[in-house]
Amino acid sequence: MGAFPTTIHFTGLNTPVRTECAIRDLEVIGTIPPEISGAFFRAVPDPAHPPMFADDIVLSGDGMISRFLIADGHVDYDIRYVRTERYMLEREARRALFGRYRNPFTDDPAVAGRDRTVANTTPVWHAGRLFMTKEDGLAYEIDPVSLETIGRWDYYGALRSETFTAHPRVDPATGEMFFFGYEAGGLCSRDIAYCIADRDGKLVSEQWFEAPYCASVHDFAITETRAVFPIFPTTADLDRLKAGGPHWAHQQELESWIGIMPRYGKTDEMRWFRGPKGVSAFHLVNAFDEGDLVHLDLCLTDTNAFAFMREAGGIHRMPWEVNGALTRWTFDLSSAGETFEERPIGPPGDLPRLRDADQGRPYRYAFYCSMNPAGGPPLPGGPVGAAFNALVRIEPGNGRVEMMTLAPDMAVSEPVHIPSARNGHDGWLLAVVDRRTGEEAFDSELWVIDAADIPAGAVARISVPVRMRAQVHGAWVSAAQLSQRKAP
Q1: Which one-letter DSSP state was computed for residue 13?
Q2: What would the pLDDT profile of 16-40 be if each residue is shown by its tens digit?
Q3: 381 against 193, higher pLDDT
Q4: How is the chain split among helix, strand and coil, in percent rounded to 5?
Q5: What was the pLDDT predicted at 488?
Q6: Nearest one of 483, 462, 351 to 417, comparing CA atoms
Q7: CA pair distance 474, 466, nearest whole angstrom
Q8: Cα 302 to Cα 277: distance, rounded to the nearest angstrom
């Protein structure tokens, strides 16, 4: 078996672990609030085999579904590979068969036409089912109890789109899931499928439209009445792929676009707004209505945050030269024209989280990861190669910002929010925190944080006695929700 490359994508917190395990009763330091009962699912890319090409990236890693199961102050930990078609083909061959990131023209001929997705980006819970998603293919259903892979999910053949977003939105009042797939009609197509699944998990709507260009559309937003599709200039080109090149290249001089349509309307009602050139946002905090105004809060940067996407477009900037801010874009649907208002509302950062109950509605507070320069150099790892070392709480209505800072050689991953049973309490956050203990040695803990007092740090810490690889996204599923799971 060949060796893994010694690049940032395979060292530090990105060092391959490739271990499935189940551990009961992790050590708890402090006291876990009794109302925290359920499962914290995490999506962890972890390549099962060394890649075919040395310039491979984190986002190509085989998906693993990780779970912290919490009940009565006890915590169990499990992690298993998602048995995608790709994983099983390579497992049988005992080597990598799929080539460069999202480029089927670089694959071994033995897997031509086979499903390339690694299902490694976001766990999604809806209508009693758990899915692992990556936006280049369909979701895979996972048994939330055994973590066994049930299979690819296409709504019993009803879904026509070839892809399923890593960031669907679930309305807290109706229970509907709103989602989309880009490159829905095939590689490098401009097709986007906009879909709705009802509270019982039945696909009730699928409409297609064309984006201004084929772009990486990682996230979108809903309000109570509208759906919002931001299009940023990180583009795909079929000829480049056929030549063995990268799927994505950022185009700094290309304009961004934002499409807004009625949530239950027709895609031909889409109204397009022209945005700034070269900007990028992978994650949106939220969107909400105020009469004819639509507010969209997003983690905006002045270029693409991923070095491999910037460099493919000829943009050579160091990570600390990328500027950004939590930004609010406001669209006036009563006015003609393509312009909108923009204003910064918080410090730069990414991986935002808000209460599920606030989805698509005005919200009082949200959380996201950020960098604290006083925390020293960031730990190497994560999808962009540098891990966050601070957690921000922001109240956009009054501008209040609070921060949980970490000591040098520490990092925090995206949190999940857990509502409190107590009136007036803002709930809890769960987040994995890593600490460097040697040149290539790291320890990990799961922290329980009071959402109303994040500067205080953890009220409880759960020690994980095995090496962990950096996650992408996570999801909290309460014990009550788990009890309503659909039989596989």
Answers
A1: G
A2: 999 999 999 999 999 999 999 999 9
A3: 193
A4: 10, 40, 50
A5: 73
A6: 351
A7: 19
A8: 9
The answer to whether 390 touches 403, Cβ cutoff 8 Å, is yes
The answer to pTM > 0.85 is yes
Question: Sheet of 293-301: strands edge to edge?
Answer: 284-290, 293-301, 324-332, 341-346
When pLDDT is averaged across residues 147-170 and rounded to a whole number, the result is: 98
% residues pLDDT > 70 (the chain)? 100
CA 470, 297, 354, 264 dihedral sign is: negative
Compute CA distances 333 → 210, 260, 294, whole Å.
Answer: 21, 9, 8
Q: How far apart are CA 223 and CA 359, in angstroms?
A: 8
Q: Which residue has the tokens 């895609």?
A: 267
What local confidence, expressed as pLDDT, does residue 319 receive? 86
Return the amino acid letter for 258: I
Retrieve residue 26's tokens: 């992790």
The residue behind tokens 């969107």 is: 287
**Rounded-to-integer distance, Cα 274 and Cα 391, Å:** 32
Query: How many degrees, rounded to 5, is the angle at CA 220 between CA 216 and CA 226?
Result: 140
Q: Using alpha carbons, select from 331, 348, 405 the residue that is nearest to residue 372.
A: 405
Above 60 in pLDDT, residue 1? no
Residue 329 CB contacts under 8 Å (≥ 6 apart), including other chains: 258, 275, 295, 296, 298, 340, 341, 342
Each residue's pLDDT tens digit, 161-188: 999 999 999 999 999 999 999 999 999 9
Q: How crowded is residue 198: how many other Cβ atoms within 10 Å of its Cβ?
A: 14
